[in-house]
Amino acid sequence: MDDSLFITQIQRYSLHDGPGIRTTVFLKGCNLSCRWCHNPETQISGPQIQYLSNRCIHCGACLRACPNQALSAEAGHINRDTGKCSVCGECVKVCYPDATKVIGEKLTLPVLLEVLEADRALYADGGGVTFSGGEPMLQAGVLGRFLPGIKKAGISVTVDTAGCVPFEWFEQLLAEVDLFLYDIKMLDSRKHERMTGVSNERILDNAVRLSRAGARLWVRTPLIHGINDTKEELEGLHRFLDGLSGVERLDLLPYHAYGNYKAAGIGRLAETFEAPSEEQMGQMKEYFSDIVDEVCIL
Question: For residue 181, how far is the Cα from the chain centroid?
Fold first, then answer.
């Protein structure tokens, strides 16, 4: 049994991943493929090579180091043939400017506890650790073995999830999780499937079941202009949230294109969308404030 989480990074001093100051652990692997994904390097479950062209000094060391001849240089850019690349990391070892790196590593509980203990002083105002991703619930079995030790250490636990997993996986963790950040992207199931690769029936059903189980919820909705900021979508979300108990807060997240740069670094094409205007965001905040005590624009 492998008692390690597979992660992309640990981000310390996080301010928007739950209450207080938090240490956020980004887990690798996701069963959604959102077309606006902000963390595309977390989508696949295996390791990847990321290439950041703005750091590259075009020294050619990676070309010489690659045992599979998977790399080539063209117009000042390093191209990678993913069919030949074995993600061996030889190119990373010789990359002095850190333009290439392996995305994906194992994290054991003792190592994580050491990080959390070092950050403990920051958690005084309700902070703690947040497991994000990707989809952390895909590693619910390992999380279930991690969380008792974290709670025994007196550290609050938040899980950031899109909710598209069997509810039984949530049941394994309910006693150890203090708060779920729960993504609800849109209410129209066909549109949801077109934009994320999956329908939303299980996601919405799990939100209801978590609510009935007494879980604390902060709902998060990324807002993409013309996609889910329409009158129909907002009215549907309003009705749905009005029927849930336990929703302490609604976070409205206007679209940003930060993920596009990271997508290019792993050889993926990324789409660009448009964010709602500041005026629209303000109107949405006001619209939902009658059913949720705290509505925030992040």
Answer: 11
For 193, the 3-state DSSP assignment is helix
Q: Which of 94, 45, 44, 38 is nearest to 66 (CA)?
A: 94
How far is 135 from 84, CA to CA, in rounded Å?
28
SS3 content of the chain, % helix, strand, coil (to 5): 35, 25, 40
Give the SS3 label for residue 274: coil
- Alpha helix locations (H) across 124-257? 140-152, 167-173, 189-196, 201-212, 231-242
Residue-wise burial string across 186-207, b where 16 or more C-beta atoms lie within 10 A, e elsewhere: bbbeebbeebbebbbeebbebb
Question: What per-residue string of b and e applies to 60-98 under the rule 16 or more CB within 10 Å gives b?
Answer: ebbbebbeeebbeeeeeebebeeeebebbeebbeebeee
State pLDDT tens for residues 74-106. 888 899 998 999 999 999 999 999 999 999 999
How far apart, in whole angstroms, are the C-alpha atoms of residue 125 and residue 14? 13
CA atoms of 230 and 77, how far apart (whole Å): 40
Q: What is the pLDDT of residues 210-248, one digit of tens each?
A: 999 999 999 999 999 999 999 999 999 999 999 999 899
